[in-house]
Amino acid sequence: MPDGRSHGGRTAQTTRLAPSPTGALHLGNVRTFLVNWAMARRAGWRVVLRIEDLDGPRVKAGAAERTVETLRWLGMDWDEGPLVQSADLEPYREAMRVLARAGRVYPSEVTRGEIEASASAPQEGVGESVFPAALRPEVIPREFNERMRHEGTKARRHEGSEKRDEEGGTNWRMVVEAGAVEFVDGFRGPQALEPAKSVGDFVVWTKRGVPAYQLAVVVDDHRQGVTKVVRGDDLLDSAARQLLVYRALGYGPEPSYTHLPLVRGADGRRLAKRHGDTRVEHYRALGVRPERVVGLAAWWSGVGGPNARPTEVSAAEFAAGFGLDTMGRSDVVYRPEDDAWLRAR
Ligand code: GLU
């Protein structure tokens, strides 16, 4: 495919599947990826695959390969990739140089304890670790230097404060001005989020010497030509931060965002180990067919109408029957019956 972005003079849309190999894909991840993939295949968008493996300590050996294999086993495909983030950090460094030259990022060794101590009083709805503008350095260096330490930062060392520099580098934060970031979410409608109030100056480059998720995702969405971001709505808040980075880098046009309800356990928490083994690999090892896993995701997503029970479907059938408008508005609850249905292969 040439650059894949235009067909017959018409600009095609591009989306991405961006798994983090921090563990194996579970039923919740699968439902999000299937919806994303189905939207793409129905509308003729290009699909790129990206492995988000910069979250060092949480990345598991071999998980990226297994994730790719699981997506294929379920019947999904893509037109480009995988792009593996850790393979080359230079594009992210280059973005940091641009942001630094514009005075939009700065090194910061302020500890979590100092952030919390600076908060006047806990406010309703405001997370505890909002990084306040008051802890910005007086002088912002206009150059990105990965090894930069204290110079120019306001960080103070307190007796008994948390240990710093244990990873050798310094976090870099983005200057977040007050004000709303507005966008129209493809599922949740108009949004006006205020990152200055919810997170404050957020980390874009980590002291581990790798870009933070918020920076990496923007650099990659831009260089992979992504115009449609479809993902779980635990990342809705992140969209505001990502738009700030997008704008600060002068990238445009911005992608559109669609944030989908998550799959949760009966306790209301997002699907995780505590809810039992919901990894696709686990069901596969039990001899469950991919159509059965896809069938559950389809049933959860309103594919085939409001049936009482799931039925087996292929990924292609999922795509043929899927519509964002028929998908439930609320989170999906994973129940023991769902597990039983998968096992009754
Ligand atoms: N890598 C993230 C995840 O697996 C998705 C990030 C994104 O879609 O922006 O949850």
Taken as a percent bin, the fraction of beta residues is: 15-25%
Tell the overall outline: elongated
User: Poorly predicted ranges (pLDDT <50, ≥5 residues)?
Assistant: 1-10, 150-165
Total strand count, please? 14
Main sheet makeup: 3 strands, parallel
Cα radius of gyration in angstroms: 21 Å
Bound molecules: glutamic acid
Keywords:
alpha/beta, 345 residues, disordered N terminus, single chain, binds glutamic acid, 11 helices
Give a structural overview.
Helix 1 packs across helix 10 (315-321) and helix 6 packs across helix 7 (236-248). The protein contains eleven helices and 14 strands. Helix 1 (27-43) links the parallel strand 3 and strand 4. The chain has a three-stranded parallel β-sheet. Strands 6-7-10 form a three-stranded antiparallel β-sheet. A two-stranded antiparallel ribbon has the order 1-2. The chain is of the alpha/beta class and 345 residues long. It starts with 5 loop residues before the first strand and ends with a helix. Glutamic acid binds at residues 18-20, 52, 217, 231, 235.
Write the layout of secondary structure elements.
Blueprint: E1 6-7, E2 10-11, E3 14-17, H1 27-43, E4 46-51, H2 63-74, E5 80-84, H3 90-101, E6 105-108, H4 112-118, E7 171-174, E8 181-185, E9 189-193, H5 195-198, E10 203-205, H6 213-223, E11 228-232, H7 236-248, E12 256-260, E13 263-264, H8 280-285, H9 290-300, H10 315-321, E14 332-333, H11 336-343
Parallel strand pairs: 3-4, 4-5, 11-12, 13-14
Antiparallel strand pairs: 1-2, 6-7, 7-10, 8-9
Helix pairs in contact: 1-9, 1-10, 6-7
